[in-house]
What does this fold into?
Amino acid sequence: MNWILPEGASLGFEGLAAPLRIVRGLGGGTQGQVYEVELEGERLALKWYLPACIARDPGLERRLTASIRSTAPNDAFLWPIALLRASPASRPLIRIRQESFGYLMPLRPAAYVGASEHAAGRLAIGLRQVLRACFGLADAFHALHLAGLCYKDVSLGNLFLEPGSGSILICDNDNVAVDGADHGAVLGTPGFMAPEVLLAQARPGADSDLFSLAVLLFRLLTRHDPLKGQMELAIRCLDEPARRRLCGEDPVFIFDPVDARNRPDPIEHAAALITWPIYPRPLQALFEQTFCRGMKQPSRRALTGQWKQELARTLDQRSLCPACGQENFQASGASGLCWSCATPLPVPITLVLPRGAVVAAPDNELHPHHFDALAGEDLRHPIARVVAHPQDARRLGLRNLSASPWSAEAHDGRSQPVAPGESCSLAPLARIHTPAGSIAVQRPSRPAPAA
Amino acid sequence: MPFPDVKLANRPLHFLYLCDCSGSMAASGKMQALNQAIRQSLPGMAAVARDNPEARVLVRAVSFADQAAWHIETPTPVEQLEWRDLQAGGITAMGAALKLVAAALQSPPMEVRALPPVLVLISDGQPTDDFAAGMEALLRVPWAQKAVRLAIALGHDADLEVLQRFIGSEPAAAGRSPRRPLQASNATSLAQYIQWASTAVVGAASMPASRVSEIPLGPAAGNIPLPDLPPTVLDPTDDVGPLVW
It folds into this structure.
């Protein structure tokens, strides 16, 4: 890589009191180059634009300035911190003649890897983490859209995952603008672009974001593309005109309940056929809503709040197969078969809450939104987690992650306190009283004895 | 529990170098510069291939001098590729090289379904055999018609007209200059063009990048919109050496 900014050098920038040290180049593309930099002991990232990119996008500086003033919608965005231009003394050190600029942003921690690693099947990640990443993505776009902004270029390349927790980071926030206000240069990434944007019938905005978001969620959940079925197999050379037909002129969802022209091929598209049945019906319905009726009617696409709600409910329904240990997400009450090994799944213990129910399976969590009708779905501050007993994994307990003590009420009516950080065994309990509300422990009803 | 062991369906992306190894390539270190440029470009190419799980990037190379021959005959995944040095000596059988590539792009052996192939022709001189016949053979093959064809002219003696016929003429679209052979006048610019072809162009042909409105989305002149050329980066500490050809 030919780095435009000299690695190891300290450069002065207008408006920065201290010099910025260019630690090393991280990567580059057709827009610009990204560097790890140090400013007064703090490590940050600096994106430096190529002059051709600035020339193509006259609104870039104005959008960045507006974003910097408005601050990040939530902490999932690697949001611009400051716009930088080289000071006159440092300009000769920049190895490019034309005038250019860049912006500072938080540095992505090394534990976060590109979402394409997951798409390629190279990442060790669990279903729970993938669903949490999907929730994080929907949550981030919910905050962005509620702020009146749109992202315009949702794609696999702009998303990073932490595989251990399913936390996400969204980069390349330089196209963000007030929805409908700023006609920036970017149109999106083919394959993620809404059909009306690909066909140049509309500019990218919040409605096209909803389409791109659904594509990205589908790709994370299935490792497959929602529009690549039989109709893609019929294409020999997948070039631009072919992509335009497939994704713009005649787009058909591979699981469209009515239009069966683009069904997945059992061999070529096995990923979609294996993963799609894992997810509960209401979650599948949001994809159908977006990719069937919403394909041509942007206002009918599933909204970020709907995605948040269904993804959070899906996580609440997570149970483990007693035979193979694989995670299942079927609706409570519906005693189905494990998607992985086809063993019948037992009806699990369920924690019934003022708002919703959570299956008692290790690592499932209770959140404030399970108790408070006014709290939006949020997975960042759990107040309880289901844990397996350290000596006997079959015995499940509930750990108090809140700051207040609970009172656990057994079937015989006796109560016992559960201090913050402690866990109580679920087996003898009828309910748990917490300051947030009460948790009823519901067991599957035993079959009635034969008469 | 792990996510189901499934992988994204992918398509092959064939990347072919056509390298001039005539005797004139021995002058001024041009052959060594080309070997270095390709070798240095491989890690970046492998990184692009990793980032594009929808593509399976497979590399081959043809050398041409007195005759044309496969330098790398088996389509090789870029991460497994080891570049053996090409040797200069002989005349410029460019037409024969085109016929060799034309045969390789027939289906079979080409897959039924693929991404557009990328062909990169690098030459410092003029063909000494029947270039026109080679070009005709190449353009009869559908996969060659669909291919992204790039040409790099090494030094001032390269036959720009021949290279232009290889890449085909493309009318100037609004705001875009017509496509021309890339002219590498020294080792640094050669390395930049090789890097551009093996990373930015491979990226564009395998998974489309963000699109900006200046690039028309309508039926494009080419079947793959080419990314911007690398900017001229001023590098006073250029360790490749200021070779001028």
